[in-house]
Design a protein that fits this description.
Family: Belongs to the major facilitator superfamily. Monocarboxylate porter (TC 2.A.1.13) family.
CATH class of the largest domain: Mainly Alpha
Keywords: Membrane, Transmembrane, Transmembrane helix
Structural class: alpha+beta
GO molecular function: acyltransferase activity, transferring groups other than amino-acyl groups; transmembrane transporter activity
Largest sheet: 8 strands, mixed
Main location: membrane
Strand content: 5-15%
CATH architecture of the largest domain: Up-down Bundle
CATH topology of the largest domain: Growth Hormone, Chain: A
InterPro entries: Acyl_CoA_acyltransferase (IPR016181), GNAT_dom (IPR000182), MFS (IPR011701), MFS_dom (IPR020846), MFS_trans_sf (IPR036259), Proton-linked_MCT (IPR050327)
């Protein structure tokens, strides 16, 4: 068993969900999983161009529905209530989202081209059939059902594809692509309005279909799937339903879509009915609304790449709720135009940011299509509910209840905003200026060693047991040491930890995974408590860097066939010779290691070997571990990146592997890591306390305030034996 000081996870909470990480075969040493996204280049930006066209012809059509709503309300085609007419647009919106349940897994299986061709055909065919309709049920079949399903076959693959081509620019890429819906919402209403009079409704709709047919050529030609899973995935990712942040965000999307649908359906009819504008300007209000949303889709998404997607989404949703409430104060044409501009801008965020958020909440990118499809299917319920419920509130006879309508829209958007705040806290904690970065796991590589050492050294600064055994103060105390002496202690500690980790990584059966994220963080501020060495930044070979922010080291024990497979690489002769040389080197240099307090280390090791409960009332002697088991030797997340769910991701690989092999997991945890392990299904089976040893080591010469702080750490000077036995 590796030194217990190295088997601790530092201050990481279990705010993340259960996500499967596929393990590579033990004998394979190359990195598992797809390479990092290119994050630019001609091919990547061509995907954005293709996505722009798809948004233009899917959400752009939906943003045009206010024109259809107003035309249908006139009774020129058929006579129905506002609520019944709203069902056409609501079902079209809902099917765009719901079809993602099927389109997502089909995309994950590699059939992007089939989805593009089928979806494009159904949209064009649906509008051609709408041009022949004269009854309400016919319009429902053509516009709601056919066009809605076709749009869903295109939308989910598009928002699943873009995150695989971009990393640090994902917000900007999705924003540019989604602005196509705004441009479509500008052009299509003008086309319809200008053509319905001269050539009639049927040929006006056919013109829209011909425009869509012509530009659908772009995505069919240029869009290319970059990542394909090694084997077919299930149509539903059941782990998503136990992912609390993911489900909470899907609920928020559903609620905000209810409020947003009120704007989409009634921004044109409202000023005409109230007499603020004539019918001509009322039709153009849709174009003004969508023109403003172009900026609302690009600018906030670009900002989200710098400050974080949830940090952007939350205030935008809350501001949109205020803008919806302000509809009650409109009394003239100027006020309505201003409202259309502001509501259009903030409404654009509602469509542009959810795909980025769903991608951020999906750790395993191989199921990104399934996850996004499921999320939008749940969110689509809001679009299904929003239009008809708003129509029911508005009423059909006498004076229409516009006050109730806008209050309904404003309250739902505000409720979604507060739900987003909860999701953001679950992912990144309550601090305002914390950004959640996209991350993934990959196997350890030799060049990662210095990054791992740096991360562990930083975590040790807040571990009372590590500080007890090593000659390193958690802070620079000008009263007793100079900065030069402090730096000398730090370098000696890093050198010692490097020798130790290098040996442990050579042991047979040892598997190490590192948590990496793209270099989006420009904050390089260093201090003695949170050093982030440049060794943590590794060049991926294409001009981009990845940042290592944590790691988990596992060891396989036992003699079963599964255990022998994991140990095969470590039992190779060259590996064993390296391990022997490293062991001899560490044995020779250990007595001269100035970073270690050898007297305290001896007491610490004696306590571990005896597993003595000592005098502490809560101490219990741990049981003997099972022969066949996985052991978590170390789990560290750099202090700057803790409390963001990265530790849960690192832990999940071992849980999935142990569940597959039907063995238990053993870990020694400090107080800082207990919460993470308990949330992961571990149970406490023993405790060894060191309070008496650490208490005696406190320096009476310390200033009273510093000594008081050190004394508060004494209670946490213990390790707990914890076991995971599976479901």
């Amino acid at each position: 068993m590796v030194s217990l000081i190295e088997a601790n996870e530092k201050r990481e909470t279990a705010s993340d969900s259960t996500n499967t990480v596929v393990a590579p075969k033990p004998e394979v040493t190359k990195p598992a999983g797809p390479p990092p996204p290119p994050n630019g280049g001609l091919t990547a930006w061509l995907q954005v161009a293709g996505g722009f066209v798809i948004f233009f012809n899917t959400w752009g059509m939906i943003n045009t529905f206010a024109v259809f709503q107003t035309y249908y309300e006139s009774g020129a085609l058929f006579t129905e209530s506002s609520s019944n007419i709203s069902w056409i647009g609501s079902i079209q919106c809902f099917l765009l989202q719901l079809t993602g349940i099927v389109a997502g897994p089909i995309y994950d299986r590699g059939y992007l081209r089939l989805l593009l061709l089928t979806g494009s055909f159904m949209i064009v065919f649906g509008y051609m059939m709408l041009s022949l309709c004269h009854e309400y049920w016919e319009a429902m079949l053509a516009q709601a059902i056919c066009v809605g399903i076709g749009s869903g076959l295109l939308f989910t693959p598009t928002v699943s594809l873009l995150p695989t081509w971009f990393s640090s620019h994902i917000g900007l890429a999705v924003g540019i692509a989604s602005s196509g819906s705004s441009l479509g919402g500008v052009i299509y209403p003008i086309v319809l309005y200008r053509l319905i009079g001269p050539i009639g409704f049927p040929w006006a709709v056919r013109t829209v279909a011909f425009i869509a047919l012509g530009i659908f050529v772009v995505p069919v030609i240029v869009m290319k799937q970059r990542i394909r899973p090694p084997k077919p995935r299930a149509f539903i990712d059941w782990t998503a339903f136990t992912d609390v942040p993911y489900m909470a965000f899907a609920l928020a999307v559903m609620i905000v879509f209810i409020g947003n649908s009120v704007l989409i359906f009634y921004v044109s009819y409202y000023p005409i009915n109230k007499g603020f504008t004539d019918s001509s300007l009322g039709f153009y209000m849709v174009a003004i609304f969508n023109a403003a949303s172009v900026f609302g889709r690009i600018a906030p998404n670009a900002v989200s790449d710098r400050i974080g997607v949830f940090n952007t989404f939350v205030p935008m949703a809350l501001i949109l709720s205020i803008v919806v409430f302000c509809m009650l104060a409109v009394t003239n044409t100027a006020g309505m135009v201003v409202e259309a501009i502001f509501s259009g801008f903030f409404s654009g965020v509602i469509v542009a940011l959810p795909p980025v958020c769903f991608a951020m909440l999906t750790k395993n990118k191989a199921v990104i299509g399934t996850r996004i499809g499921q999320g939008f299917a749940i969110g689509g319920l809001g679009l299904l509910i929003g239009g008809p419920s708003a129509g029911a509130i508005l009423g059909t006879t006498g004076s229409l209840n516009w006050t109730g309508l806008w209050v309904y829209g404003g309250v739902t958007v505000a409720a979604a905003g507060f739900t987003l705040i909860a999701v953001r806290i679950m992912k990144a904690g309550p601090k305002l200026m914390v950004k959640v970065y996209p991350m993934h796991l990959r196997p350890y590589q030799t060049q990662d060693l210095l990054a791992l050492v740096t991360i562990k050294a930083n975590c040790d600064l807040s571990d009372p047991l590590a500080l007890f055994c090593r000659r390193l103060s958690p802070r620079l105390d000008q009263q007793h040491q100079t900065e030069e002496k402090y730096e000398k202690q730090w370098r000696a500690n890093v050198k010692s930890l490097r020798r130790s980790l290098e040996l442990e990584l050579l042991f047979a059966g040892t598997v190490c995974w590192v948590v990496v994220l793209d270099d989006n963080d420009n904050d390089r501020t260093q201090n003695p408590n949170q050093r982030l060495s440049s060794y943590s930044d590794n060049d991926t070979g294409n001009g981009r860097k990845e940042r290592i922010v944590g790691f988990a080291m596992w060891s396989r024990h036992g003699s079963s066939s599964e255990a022998r497979k994991w140990k095969a690489e470590g039992n190779r002769l060259s590996r064993r010779i390296k391990a022997l040389i490293a062991y001899i080197h560490m044995t020779i240099t250990y007595p001269f290691d100035k970073s270690i307090n050898h007297t305290r280390m001896a007491k610490f090791q004696q306590r571990i070997r005896s597993s003595s409960p000592q005098s502490h009332q809560h101490n219990t002697k741990p049981p003997k571990p099972a022969k066949e088991r996985w052991e978590l030797e170390a789990l560290y997340i750099h202090p700057r990146y803790q409390r963001r769910g990265y530790g849960s991701l690192a832990l999940q690989w071992g849980i999935e592997t142990a569940r597959k092999e039907n063995v238990e997991i053993w870990v020694w945890s400090t107080q800082a890591g207990k919460r993470l392990y308990l949330s992961g299904g571990f149970e406490t089976v023993g405790r060894i306390g060191f309070e008496d040893l650490v208490d005696m080591s406190l320096d009476d010469r310390q200033r009273p305030q510093q000594r008081q702080q050190e004394e508060r750490q004494v209670e946490g000077a213990a390790v707990w034996a914890m076991i995971w036995k599976g479901p």
